[in-house]
TrEMBL record:
Signal peptide: none annotated. Required for the transposition of the insertion element. NCBIfam families: transpos_IS256. Residues 59-82 are annotated as: Disordered. This is Mutator family transposase. Belongs to the transposase mutator family. Keywords: DNA recombination, DNA-binding, Transposable element, Transposition.
Length: 422
């Protein structure tokens, strides 16, 4: 199928839609598939790449194709050579133009390049979803009819190692109203396959964005020394002050927090309390227990919260005594939460931003089963983080009504919150 296609940069969305519809209709009339080796998308990709290469060569030589200026005896066009490149629509055979003195170095499809950059991004995206190198190779074979070796896939994913190191050591904001420290259990082979914690530190910026500050592999015996090293690293990256650190009573962590940021308030994670409550209960009771717990952590003060906890205990003590005991034991660490403004409480109790992130991490980890070492696990978790934010910073909007929370933080932590200084 052939058709004349003009430049699309100047077209509005309606014109582009009509052009696309015309091409699809014409392809169907001529019995041309939309995808596949002889498909419309493959043909368009070939046309676009070859046109771009010809334009590059014209820029290199200083004159266009068929221009008489090429007959002046200087460097000129010298035919084409055939080359197959792997693209997002499958293998595409293109004619790469050449010049007589061999000085032309195309940028759109570089010399010795066999894959377009979009293919590498596709491999990284599939890896972030937990697919193994073998599964990705099979995916390319099944969907694109292309052979991509496991070694090639491994080399593509290894290219993010330097990028990951830069991300893990990038400068951070000066002040974070809240940071959360969460743990994800990953199976890692260390002689034998063991469950190993990986810690994700998530900050809420003064602009109301979720900022994933970093990911650290636990060493199995975490204590104050371990956590002081992690938090000092975060501080050395520019974090001078944190108002509230939300965590789950990890060994040595509260002491390390107050050592690193003297004014920081340590708060037991309400999200973890709720999550741990469900561990003692059958799944069919989770929704009802969540409804019964909400009046506890949304209470006006500690007295009211304790009354609501009493109602919760009266209802569930007989069936799930351990769940009730969990809340009773955590009560002294929980009640400082009730002193915060309701808008601050909403930020601390907003489970969606954390749980949606954890769900993506867990999905990728479960798909892989286990990892050969910490580095492989960290790479997988980083690729998930990378996929969440096209800028590669791992940021996203935390809450829509952030301004109300920002005002509450500015009043509660007077003089410490200054959005313009970050």
């Amino acid at each position: 199928m052939t058709d004349t296609i003009g430049p699309v940069d100047g077209l509005n969305e309606d014109d582009k839609q009509r052009l696309a519809q015309r091409l699809v209709d014409q392809a169907r009339q001529q019995g041309v598939d939309l995808v596949g080796p002889e498909g419309l998308l493959t043909g368009l990709t070939k046309t676009v790449l070859e046109t771009a290469l010809e334009e590059e060569l014209s820029g290199h030589l200083g004159y266009g194709k068929h221009d008489p200026a090429g007959r002046d005896g200087g460097n000129s066009r010298n035919g084409t050579r055939s080359k197959t490149v792997l693209t997002e629509v499958g293998p595409v055979e293109i004619a790469v133009p050449r010049d007589r003195d061999g000085s032309f170095t195309p940028a759109i499809v570089r010399k010795r390049q066999r894959r377009l950059d979009g293919v590498d991004q596709l491999v990284l995206s599939l890896t972030a979803r937990g697919l193994t190198t073998g599964e990705i190779a099979a995916h390319f074979a099944d969907v694109y009819g292309a052979t991509v070796s496991k070694d090639t896939i491994s080399r593509i994913t290894e290219k993010v190692a330097g990028e990951m190191a830069d991300w893990q050591h990038r400068p951070l904001d000066r002040v974070y109203p809240v940071i959360f420290i969460d743990a994800l259990v990953v199976k890692v082979r260390d002689g034998q396959v063991t469950n190993k914690p990986f810690y994700i530190v998530i900050g809420v910026t003064c602009a109301g964005e979720r900022d994933i500050l970093g990911i650290w592999a636990g060493d199995g015996g975490e204590g104050a020394k371990y956590w002081l090293a992690v938090l000092t690293e975060i501080k050395n990256r520019g974090v001078d002050d944190v108002c509230i650190v939300v965590c789950d009573g990890l060994k040595g962590l509260p002491e390390a927090i107050t050592t690193t940021w003297e004014l920081a308030q340590v708060q037991t994670c309400v999200i973890h309390l709720i999550r741990n409550t469900f561990r003692y209960a059958a799944r069919q009771d989770w929704d009802q227990m969540a409804k019964d717990l909400k009046p506890v952590y949304t209470a006006v003060n500690a007295t009211q919260a304790e009354a609501r906890l009493g109602e919760f205990a009266e209802k569930w003590q007989g069936k799930y005594p351990a769940a009730v005991k969990l809340w009773r034991s955590a009560w002294p660490e929980f009640i400082p939460f009730l002193d915060y403004d309701v808008e601050i409480r909403k930020i601390i109790c907003t489970t969606n931003a954390i749980e949606s992130l954890n769900a993506r991490y867990r999905r990728a980890v479960r798909a892989r089963g286990h990892f050969p070492n910490d580095a492989a696990a960290l790479k997988c978790l980083y690729l998930v983080t990378r996929s969440l934010d096209p800028t590669g910073r791992g940021r996203a909007r935390w809450v829509i009504r952030w301004k109300a929370a920002l005002n509450a933080f500015a009043i509660t932590f007077d003089g410490r919150i200054n959005p313009s200084s970050n």
